[in-house]
Design goal:
Helix content: 40-55%
Number of strands: 0
Number of domains: 1
Distance between the termini: 40 Å
Number of helices: 5
Largest sheet: none
Length: 170
């Protein structure tokens, strides 16, 4: 279990930055050393996506979509205040897991099989949002952005390693 200060140190971010993520993503702020490894891994995923230049608005949209899906699947009935990301950090069956919550859906995910436009609210009579029917637009867009930013991130890490070696030899 971790404290907020420990999480901040492990993520190499100021506590105020981590608190800001908690507020913007509507995450529970816990007291003392009650933050789980899954909580830390979820925050690490958010920071990694932002480091890859993924817009925070896109990540928040996907976050809300995944939480709604998990509510429909009744994953929220566990009683845990962090039920929505308790699977973060698990490394098995990545092809079956949601991108942010890391929840295992028990079947491989394919963008053509997920309909993000479905709305189960009573207020709207239509079942499908026409342009989004049959698409996993948010996940697909985020994965495409990661793919395009990955070469830049690798080059930055390689350059930083070279600079570090150079300064330690001087």
């Amino acid at each position: 279990m971790h404290t907020l200060g420990n999480i901040s140190k492990r993520l190499n971010r100021a506590a105020v930055y981590v608190s800001g993520l908690q507020a913007r993503f509507e995450l529970p702020a816990l007291e003392g050393a009650t933050y789980s490894n899954a909580y830390l891994e979820f925050l690490r995923t958010l920071i990694a996506l932002r480091s890859l230049n993924i817009a925070e608005e896109s990540v928040r949209d996907l976050w809300h979509l995944e939480k709604k899906l998990l509510q429909l699947l009744h994953v929220d009935s566990t009683g845990s205040p962090t039920w929505f990301f308790d699977s973060c950090g698990v490394r098995t069956h990545r092809e079956r897991r949601l991108l942010l919550t890391n929840h295992d859906l028990a079947v491989p995910l394919a963008g053509c099989e997920i309909q993000t436009g479905l709305n189960f609210a009573d207020a709207i009579p239509e079942l499908f949002a026409s342009k989004e029917m049959g698409e996993d637009a948010l996940r697909t867009r985020i994965l495409a952005e990661i793919s395009s930013e990955l070469p830049h991130a690798r080059a930055a890490v390689k350059g930083a390693a070279a600079l570090t070696r150079r300064t330690t030899h001087d």
